[in-house]
Amino acid sequence: MRMRMMMMMMMMMMMMMMMMMMIMIVIMMIMTMMMSMMMMRGIMMMMRMRRRIMMMMVMMMTVVVVVVMMMMMMMMMMMMMMMMMMMMMMIIMMMMMMLLKRMDI
Prior knowledge:
Elements: H1 2-48, H2 51-104
Helix pairs in contact: 1-2
């Protein structure tokens, strides 16, 4: 009975993690979209400005984009790690279940 409860709990945890990941991915997508929009607007604005200010703006934009990309990569890596951990946990749980069943017999 306890083992079944544990399994249920694990499943719930997995579901929650999946949901969180989906939400995170959606947020990332939105962020990227926003960033691209901002970039376009910034470029449009820059076209009207003088050369020096334009250069400064371009530099700033590139830096921001790089930072955002780095953040995205980090987030993705974290997600992958979490997924791997959860999978490992599930496999271990399954193994335990199998062992217990064997012992009972």
